[in-house]
Amino acid sequence: MPKLIIVFLISLLPSQLLARDVAGVDIAEQLTITPGNHIFLNGAGVRSKFVFDIYVGALYLKKPSKDINEILNMDGPKRILMHFVYDEVEKEKLTDGWIDGFKNNNSAEQFAQLNERLQKFNSYFITVKKNDVIMLDYIPGVGTEIHINNDVKGSIPGQDFYHALLKVWLGEIPADPELKKAMLGITASE
Question: What digits encode the pLDDT tens for the residues 59-102?
Fold first, then answer.
């Protein structure tokens, strides 16, 4: 009987309380990005550079998928979450990373079309410290919303911009191939 009560009580908890531990960071399995729009954890892992863990990255979608084209073309809200575990990452390193990711995963023509919006996007960033959280949300009809520590910094219009942003992690030349697999929910056995 006590087991049944525990299972019942757990089922009453909001889904945001159910989390997966990734490198000591609790990553919610499900969350609400806008009223009535639930998104689900597709995958999460650690962005490493050299021997250092920089941040825990997570991808949230309306429904799980391991197919990059399906993810890029999926309707509805999406979220990329970055929870920093490294002591400090300078603004210039972040913005240089966005520029490199956009250049590496888009044609020169696409990059030229995105560059002005990318410069505006880069203007919203700050030097981040350990336990800072960046959320990059795609909200249909709005575009890409940039949140730093739950503070909305601004938004960038266009679904094409968010597609290019997703490719920083999921494109042909991702920032971190292991994080790409993790965000796609691909396990070591796959």
Answer: 999 999 999 999 999 989 999 999 999 999 999 999 999 999 99
pLDDT per residue over 20-74, tens digit each?
Answer: 899 999 999 999 988 888 999 999 999 998 889 999 999 999 999 999 999 999 9
Domain count, the chain: 1
Decide: residue 36, CB within 10 A, 0-12 exposed, 13-18 middle, 19+ buried.
exposed
| 105 CB neighbour count, 10 Å cutoff | 22
The answer as to whether 134 is a domain residue is yes
Instruction: Give residue 142's domain range.
Output: 16-183
C-alpha 157/C-alpha 175 separation (Å) is 23
Q: How far apart are CA 170 and CA 150, in angstroms?
A: 24
Report the run of H or E that residue 119 belongs to, with start and end: helix 108-123
* Residues 137/90, Cβ–Cβ less than 8 Å: no
Adjacent-strand bridge partners of 128: 89
**Token match 């990318």: residue?**
118
Residue 108 sits in a domain whose CATH number is 3.50.70.10
